Amino acid sequence: MATIHDVAKYAGISIATVSRALNKPEMVNAETLERVMHAARKLNYFKNDAKLQNVKNNKVSLGVIFPHITSYYFGELYSGISRAAQQHNIDLVLYELRNENISKQGLEEAFAFSKRHMVDGILLARNVPTAYDEAFERLDIPVALLLGTHESAKLPAFKVDDIRASFDAVSFLVSRGHRQIGMISLPPTDQMSDIVSRLRGFKQALDFYQLPFDEASVAYGNLRFDDGYSAMKELLASREKTGITAVFTVADEVAIGAMRCIQDAGLSVPEDISVIGFGNLSIANISTPKLTTVEQPFGNIGEEGVKYMAKVLSNPDHVEKGNFYLPYKIIERESVTERRALR
Amino acid sequence: MATIHDVAKYAGISIATVSRALNKPEMVNAETLERVMHAARKLNYFKNDAKLQNVKNNKVSLGVIFPHITSYYFGELYSGISRAAQQHNIDLVLYELRNENISKQGLEEAFAFSKRHMVDGILLARNVPTAYDEAFERLDIPVALLLGTHESAKLPAFKVDDIRASFDAVSFLVSRGHRQIGMISLPPTDQMSDIVSRLRGFKQALDFYQLPFDEASVAYGNLRFDDGYSAMKELLASREKTGITAVFTVADEVAIGAMRCIQDAGLSVPEDISVIGFGNLSIANISTPKLTTVEQPFGNIGEEGVKYMAKVLSNPDHVEKGNFYLPYKIIERESVTERRALR
């Protein structure tokens, strides 16, 4: 069991200073405080502190760091996390990343929050570039990724294999007779992104089935309904040239926007153009027509993340790295049908 | 500034026992622990505890207790709360109520979580019956309600006036020439519920416009898409008798289910039957047709709750009670049109 002496020794700071840092933090400078807190955490000093223990009531807490609380998938992922957390008697502490993109500063704020709230582990729903590794090392709390991956694969990541799932979505359209297939994708960026890798799966499938790839068959936009609507408008404008009869979209909300655009142009889904989504969010079931889509098992992804964390927290030597792919499947509803001649 | 002596005096317990309760809680019985913690909280004892202060870094935390994380409105309410919390430099700590209905036990668990995580105030998104008053008194942390109300009106509640808003939704249909108006409602229950009070607003409006109320024009169900679908099926079955040309629904998701049911029956929205929703969730904008609906200002409701709490926390004598109604408005899209003859 670590004492204040151990903390002082580890931090290379006098006992008096450590005591001051712990009891009157406003009297020490930020760097010293950081060193002391790091040592205290490293040595599990706080676990011995009955008063903190009492307040926390011995319950393990897991931080959940999430962008886009308003997105449709948040609730589905969170309820998987929540279900598993209840089973493992773990408290959850949610933090919303406010920027669309996970800036380093945004992440540091999330980590500071997590430390203030004494979480024992963190589930982060985001891709993590290698450039951020140092921030994770300083954090010194175990982290698992959900939906995203770590560029240098040093963190465990729970997700579906986006490339394979996209390949299979295109195969599904091919199996329905479609040969001219369009895609609505996120714009490719420098930063590695799983959603962008869906475009790779799309291209691989065209290649595999020896179908033509035409730049005009791919439109780019963000992930909301309106983005899908405008991207589809572009695809319709070049339709005489491309002859597309089906569209693969990177997200359900985009697919629903695209369907609406097709309908507003006086065409019908799926008779004139079939549309397949990605996600299987609950909105897929309330659109007209109901959306055929690739199911991402959000609930299971959340559960697996919590289960992994429960293992790590009961045995800190248990560390796993790399991507853990969960199974996906295609949910067939009403938005894809057999190809028919272009009208 | 409270000392351990003050806590002992307030609790009527010896200093040694208080010290034991604070430092080795496992050595005292639950009742004693409860008394000590109550006294310590009451006297702000923990505020003097540098170690806790340090961990919390002087930041105020607000607990957010919420049912239905997966519901479409959660994100919209939470992002309003989150925006205001950031402005006031407040940390949020979310807790999901897992039962559809706020059982007393569920609430007690949420309160225990809030205490473990040392929140300074609580925003609760729920109706609270008088029978729960005692639990709130024991809680001893200020609470404000969002969307719901307190039956005995002892807690501040931020919401729209559901009766008036429903009255206005019906008025809107009347202004478009509709005279036979149906409703899809939550089943009336003993427990007071704001959503149920939308049925009262509906009836008051029929009364005001001297329109007939026919039991067969009201169907009951829960708040999801499928519930709206089946309720609409009932309304269609009795349509020859009731002659309804428009339907007021208690929630957007219900409205979208109802629209789909109408379409599946070979009728069209709004030409054959107009539909108006309640909420103005983001799904209202992605349905076909886009949904005309009563806007509940979820974001503002969240912000007002946080602002109130910031006031209370900076001045504990500042207490307000009762309902604070926020403005709503009708958002006109595509699902309501002028009445035409029954076909």
Short key terms for the protein model shown above:
homodimer, 6-stranded parallel sheet, alpha/beta, about 350 residues, 6-stranded mixed sheet
Would you kindly provide a brief summary of this structure?
The structure is a homodimer of 343-residue chains. Chain A is of the alpha/beta class and 343 residues long. Helices cover 43% and strands 17% of the residues of chain A.
How is the secondary structure organized here?
2 copies of one chain form a homodimer.
Chain A: H1 4-11, H2 15-23, H3 30-42, H4 50-56, E1 60-67, H5 72-87, E2 90-97, H6 104-116, E3 121-124, H7 133-139, E4 143-146, E5 156-159, H8 162-175, E6 181-185, H9 197-208, E7 218-220, H10 225-237, H11 239-242, E8 246-249, H12 252-264, E9 274-279, E10 292-295, H13 298-314, E11 322-325, E12 329-331
Parallel strand pairs in A: 1-2, 1-3, 3-4, 4-5, 5-11, 6-7, 6-8, 8-9, 9-10
Antiparallel strand pairs in A: 10-12
